[in-house]
Write a structure and sequence with these properties.
By secondary structure, this protein is of the alpha+beta class. The chain contains 9 helices and 16 strands. It is 33% helix and 31% strand. A 5-stranded antiparallel beta sheet has the order 14-13-12-15-16. Helix 2 runs antiparallel to helix 3.
Length: 291
Protein backbone atom coordinates (compact mmCIF):
# COMPACT_ATOMS: atom_id res chain seq x y z
CA UNK A 1 0.00 0.00 0.00
CA UNK A 2 1.15 3.54 -0.73
CA UNK A 3 1.06 5.75 2.35
CA UNK A 4 1.45 9.53 2.19
CA UNK A 5 2.92 11.20 5.28
CA UNK A 6 1.93 14.87 5.23
CA UNK A 7 4.56 17.05 6.87
CA UNK A 8 5.80 20.61 6.51
CA UNK A 9 9.11 21.82 5.06
CA UNK A 10 11.82 19.14 5.37
CA UNK A 11 10.85 15.88 7.10
CA UNK A 12 11.70 15.84 10.78
CA UNK A 13 13.37 12.90 12.48
CA UNK A 14 9.98 11.72 13.76
CA UNK A 15 8.62 11.53 10.20
CA UNK A 16 11.68 9.67 8.94
CA UNK A 17 11.34 7.21 11.82
CA UNK A 18 7.67 6.50 11.03
CA UNK A 19 8.49 6.15 7.33
CA UNK A 20 11.24 3.63 8.03
CA UNK A 21 8.94 1.48 10.19
CA UNK A 22 6.19 1.52 7.56
CA UNK A 23 8.68 0.59 4.86
CA UNK A 24 9.85 -2.26 7.08
CA UNK A 25 6.25 -3.51 7.05
CA UNK A 26 6.40 -3.64 3.26
CA UNK A 27 4.57 -0.40 2.40
CA UNK A 28 5.52 2.30 -0.08
CA UNK A 29 5.89 5.62 1.71
CA UNK A 30 5.82 9.10 0.18
CA UNK A 31 6.66 12.04 2.41
CA UNK A 32 4.86 15.15 1.18
CA UNK A 33 5.49 18.75 2.18
CA UNK A 34 1.92 20.06 2.29
CA UNK A 35 3.12 23.61 1.57
CA UNK A 36 4.47 22.46 -1.80
CA UNK A 37 1.25 20.68 -2.73
CA UNK A 38 -1.52 22.42 -4.65
CA UNK A 39 -4.95 21.22 -5.64
CA UNK A 40 -7.84 21.40 -8.05
CA UNK A 41 -11.17 21.57 -6.26
CA UNK A 42 -13.80 20.27 -8.64
CA UNK A 43 -16.95 18.14 -8.64
CA UNK A 44 -15.27 15.58 -10.87
CA UNK A 45 -11.66 14.43 -10.64
CA UNK A 46 -10.32 16.50 -7.74
CA UNK A 47 -6.53 16.55 -7.79
CA UNK A 48 -3.52 17.08 -5.56
CA UNK A 49 -0.35 17.96 -7.46
CA UNK A 50 3.27 18.67 -6.69
CA UNK A 51 6.00 19.83 -9.05
CA UNK A 52 3.66 19.55 -12.02
CA UNK A 53 2.64 15.92 -11.39
CA UNK A 54 -0.48 14.33 -9.95
CA UNK A 55 -0.18 12.51 -6.65
CA UNK A 56 -1.97 9.25 -7.34
CA UNK A 57 -2.58 5.74 -6.00
CA UNK A 58 -2.41 6.79 -2.35
CA UNK A 59 -4.17 4.33 -0.06
CA UNK A 60 -3.68 6.20 3.20
CA UNK A 61 -2.80 9.82 4.08
CA UNK A 62 -1.59 10.70 7.59
CA UNK A 63 -1.21 14.32 8.80
CA UNK A 64 2.05 14.91 10.68
CA UNK A 65 2.43 18.66 10.07
CA UNK A 66 2.77 21.07 12.98
CA UNK A 67 0.03 23.22 14.49
CA UNK A 68 1.24 26.34 12.71
CA UNK A 69 0.39 24.73 9.36
CA UNK A 70 -3.09 23.49 10.29
CA UNK A 71 -5.12 25.71 7.95
CA UNK A 72 -3.37 24.78 4.70
CA UNK A 73 -2.42 21.29 5.83
CA UNK A 74 -6.05 20.47 6.67
CA UNK A 75 -7.09 21.74 3.22
CA UNK A 76 -4.67 19.30 1.56
CA UNK A 77 -5.89 16.51 3.84
CA UNK A 78 -9.53 17.28 2.91
CA UNK A 79 -8.59 17.15 -0.74
CA UNK A 80 -7.26 13.62 -0.31
CA UNK A 81 -10.56 12.75 1.38
CA UNK A 82 -12.42 14.17 -1.65
CA UNK A 83 -10.33 11.82 -3.80
CA UNK A 84 -11.52 8.83 -1.76
CA UNK A 85 -8.27 8.36 0.17
CA UNK A 86 -8.52 7.03 3.73
CA UNK A 87 -7.10 9.55 6.20
CA UNK A 88 -5.93 9.17 9.82
CA UNK A 89 -6.71 11.50 11.56
CA UNK A 90 -9.57 12.88 9.46
CA UNK A 91 -9.51 16.59 8.65
CA UNK A 92 -12.59 17.47 10.73
CA UNK A 93 -11.20 15.73 13.81
CA UNK A 94 -7.76 17.27 13.30
CA UNK A 95 -9.09 20.84 13.15
CA UNK A 96 -11.44 20.21 16.07
CA UNK A 97 -8.70 18.79 18.30
CA UNK A 98 -6.25 21.59 17.47
CA UNK A 99 -8.77 24.24 18.54
CA UNK A 100 -7.92 24.31 22.24
CA UNK A 101 -11.13 25.97 23.43
CA UNK A 102 -13.41 23.88 21.25
CA UNK A 103 -11.76 20.65 22.37
CA UNK A 104 -12.10 21.64 26.03
CA UNK A 105 -15.80 22.41 25.55
CA UNK A 106 -16.43 19.11 23.77
CA UNK A 107 -14.65 17.08 26.45
CA UNK A 108 -16.41 18.97 29.24
CA UNK A 109 -19.79 18.30 27.64
CA UNK A 110 -19.01 14.56 27.64
CA UNK A 111 -17.99 14.60 31.30
CA UNK A 112 -14.26 14.07 30.82
CA UNK A 113 -12.25 15.27 33.80
CA UNK A 114 -10.09 18.36 33.26
CA UNK A 115 -8.86 21.34 35.26
CA UNK A 116 -11.54 23.98 35.79
CA UNK A 117 -11.08 26.54 33.02
CA UNK A 118 -12.12 30.14 32.48
CA UNK A 119 -12.05 31.92 29.13
CA UNK A 120 -12.10 35.66 28.55
CA UNK A 121 -11.25 38.42 26.13
CA UNK A 122 -11.82 41.67 28.03
CA UNK A 123 -13.20 40.66 31.45
CA UNK A 124 -14.82 43.43 33.51
CA UNK A 125 -13.84 41.66 36.73
CA UNK A 126 -10.46 39.90 36.55
CA UNK A 127 -10.64 38.90 40.21
CA UNK A 128 -13.96 37.15 39.60
CA UNK A 129 -12.46 35.26 36.66
CA UNK A 130 -9.71 33.97 38.95
CA UNK A 131 -12.18 33.03 41.70
CA UNK A 132 -14.35 31.24 39.15
CA UNK A 133 -11.67 28.56 38.62
CA UNK A 134 -10.84 28.17 42.31
CA UNK A 135 -8.48 31.06 43.00
CA UNK A 136 -4.70 31.34 42.90
CA UNK A 137 -2.46 29.71 41.99
CA UNK A 138 -3.70 29.51 38.41
CA UNK A 139 -2.24 28.68 35.02
CA UNK A 140 -2.79 31.47 32.48
CA UNK A 141 -2.55 30.79 28.75
CA UNK A 142 -2.83 32.93 25.64
CA UNK A 143 -4.89 31.54 22.77
CA UNK A 144 -4.19 32.54 19.19
CA UNK A 145 -5.96 30.92 16.24
CA UNK A 146 -7.41 28.44 18.72
CA UNK A 147 -4.03 27.24 19.95
CA UNK A 148 -2.02 27.86 23.10
CA UNK A 149 0.86 30.21 22.38
CA UNK A 150 2.30 30.69 25.88
CA UNK A 151 1.49 29.83 29.48
CA UNK A 152 2.35 31.28 32.88
CA UNK A 153 1.91 29.88 36.38
CA UNK A 154 0.73 32.70 38.68
CA UNK A 155 1.25 31.82 42.33
CA UNK A 156 -0.84 34.64 43.86
CA UNK A 157 -4.02 36.51 43.01
CA UNK A 158 -2.09 39.74 42.56
CA UNK A 159 0.35 38.09 40.15
CA UNK A 160 -2.53 36.48 38.26
CA UNK A 161 -4.35 39.80 37.94
CA UNK A 162 -1.21 41.48 36.60
CA UNK A 163 -0.60 38.75 34.00
CA UNK A 164 -4.23 38.67 32.84
CA UNK A 165 -4.42 42.45 32.58
CA UNK A 166 -1.19 42.49 30.57
CA UNK A 167 -2.53 39.84 28.17
CA UNK A 168 -5.85 41.68 27.86
CA UNK A 169 -3.91 44.82 27.03
CA UNK A 170 -2.42 42.95 24.08
CA UNK A 171 -5.96 42.22 22.83
CA UNK A 172 -5.37 38.52 23.51
CA UNK A 173 -7.84 35.78 24.35
CA UNK A 174 -7.02 34.29 27.73
CA UNK A 175 -7.52 30.85 29.26
CA UNK A 176 -7.28 30.65 33.04
CA UNK A 177 -7.05 27.17 34.56
CA UNK A 178 -6.98 25.89 38.08
CA UNK A 179 -3.63 24.66 39.33
CA UNK A 180 -4.22 21.18 40.72
CA UNK A 181 -2.11 21.20 43.86
CA UNK A 182 -2.55 17.54 44.76
CA UNK A 183 -1.16 16.52 41.37
CA UNK A 184 2.26 17.49 42.67
CA UNK A 185 4.86 17.21 39.94
CA UNK A 186 3.63 14.02 38.24
CA UNK A 187 2.16 13.81 34.73
CA UNK A 188 1.35 10.96 32.37
CA UNK A 189 1.58 10.89 28.59
CA UNK A 190 -0.67 8.26 27.00
CA UNK A 191 -0.32 6.93 23.46
CA UNK A 192 -3.77 6.03 22.11
CA UNK A 193 -4.60 4.40 18.80
CA UNK A 194 -8.02 3.25 17.57
CA UNK A 195 -9.55 3.06 21.01
CA UNK A 196 -6.62 1.31 22.69
CA UNK A 197 -4.08 2.63 25.16
CA UNK A 198 -0.73 1.39 23.84
CA UNK A 199 1.77 2.96 26.21
CA UNK A 200 2.04 5.27 29.23
CA UNK A 201 5.00 7.48 30.09
CA UNK A 202 5.39 9.09 33.51
CA UNK A 203 7.15 12.35 34.26
CA UNK A 204 8.24 13.56 37.67
CA UNK A 205 10.06 16.65 38.84
CA UNK A 206 8.46 19.49 36.86
CA UNK A 207 5.90 22.17 37.52
CA UNK A 208 2.75 21.16 35.71
CA UNK A 209 1.74 24.70 34.94
CA UNK A 210 4.03 24.69 31.92
CA UNK A 211 4.46 22.49 28.88
CA UNK A 212 8.11 21.86 29.64
CA UNK A 213 9.51 18.62 28.28
CA UNK A 214 12.88 18.86 30.04
CA UNK A 215 12.28 16.49 32.99
CA UNK A 216 12.98 12.80 32.54
CA UNK A 217 10.25 10.44 31.44
CA UNK A 218 9.99 6.77 32.39
CA UNK A 219 7.63 3.94 31.52
CA UNK A 220 4.41 4.30 33.50
CA UNK A 221 1.83 1.76 34.57
CA UNK A 222 -1.30 1.33 32.47
CA UNK A 223 -4.21 1.65 34.89
CA UNK A 224 -7.94 1.41 34.32
CA UNK A 225 -8.49 5.08 35.15
CA UNK A 226 -5.76 6.25 32.76
CA UNK A 227 -7.04 3.99 30.01
CA UNK A 228 -10.63 5.21 30.35
CA UNK A 229 -9.71 8.90 30.46
CA UNK A 230 -7.20 8.82 27.59
CA UNK A 231 -9.31 6.66 25.28
CA UNK A 232 -12.47 8.69 25.96
CA UNK A 233 -10.69 12.00 25.28
CA UNK A 234 -9.39 10.84 21.91
CA UNK A 235 -12.75 9.28 21.02
CA UNK A 236 -14.75 12.42 21.85
CA UNK A 237 -12.49 14.46 19.57
CA UNK A 238 -12.81 11.85 16.82
CA UNK A 239 -9.09 11.06 16.67
CA UNK A 240 -7.79 7.76 15.34
CA UNK A 241 -4.50 8.25 17.18
CA UNK A 242 -3.24 10.83 19.67
CA UNK A 243 -1.17 11.41 22.76
CA UNK A 244 -3.11 12.51 25.83
CA UNK A 245 -1.42 14.21 28.78
CA UNK A 246 -3.05 13.79 32.18
CA UNK A 247 -2.49 14.78 35.77
CA UNK A 248 -4.15 13.30 38.86
CA UNK A 249 -6.49 15.02 41.28
CA UNK A 250 -8.57 13.66 44.12
CA UNK A 251 -11.52 13.54 41.72
CA UNK A 252 -9.57 11.37 39.27
CA UNK A 253 -7.38 11.81 36.15
CA UNK A 254 -7.62 15.21 34.47
CA UNK A 255 -6.84 15.78 30.80
CA UNK A 256 -4.34 18.60 30.33
CA UNK A 257 -3.83 18.38 26.57
CA UNK A 258 -4.46 16.19 23.53
CA UNK A 259 -1.88 16.14 20.74
CA UNK A 260 -2.84 14.99 17.25
CA UNK A 261 0.81 14.16 16.46
CA UNK A 262 2.32 12.11 19.28
CA UNK A 263 5.99 12.57 20.13
CA UNK A 264 6.96 9.18 18.73
CA UNK A 265 10.66 9.68 19.46
CA UNK A 266 9.93 10.21 23.15
CA UNK A 267 7.90 7.01 23.28
CA UNK A 268 10.60 5.15 21.35
CA UNK A 269 13.43 6.42 23.53
CA UNK A 270 11.61 5.47 26.73
CA UNK A 271 9.45 2.47 25.83
CA UNK A 272 11.15 1.13 22.69
CA UNK A 273 9.76 0.56 19.20
CA UNK A 274 6.89 -1.74 20.24
CA UNK A 275 4.22 0.92 21.03
CA UNK A 276 4.88 2.79 17.77
CA UNK A 277 4.86 -0.44 15.77
CA UNK A 278 1.46 -1.30 17.30
CA UNK A 279 0.16 2.16 16.37
CA UNK A 280 1.32 1.81 12.77
CA UNK A 281 -0.17 -1.68 12.51
CA UNK A 282 -3.48 -0.13 13.60
CA UNK A 283 -3.18 2.45 10.83
CA UNK A 284 -2.79 -0.24 8.18
CA UNK A 285 -5.62 -2.40 9.52
CA UNK A 286 -8.03 0.53 9.13
CA UNK A 287 -7.62 0.59 5.35
CA UNK A 288 -10.07 -1.88 3.75
CA UNK A 289 -8.82 -4.17 1.03
CA UNK A 290 -5.45 -4.21 -0.69
CA UNK A 291 -4.97 -0.64 -1.86
Amino acid sequence: MKIALLCHTRPREETRYIASLLQGLGHEVEVLDVLRCYMRIATHQPLVRRDGSDIRNVGLAVPLFGKGYTFYGAAVLRQFEMMGVRTLNESVALVRARDRLRSLQLMARKGIGMPSTGFAHKPDDVNDLIRMVGGAPVVIKILKDGQTRSSVLAETTKAAESVIEAFVGLDAQVLVQEYVKEAGDVAHECLVSHGKLLSVLERRGAALGSDSTQPEWCVGKITKSLREAAVQASRVLGLDFASVRLIHAQRGPLVVSVQTVPDVLRFRNVAGDAPIEKMLAGWVREVPGDV
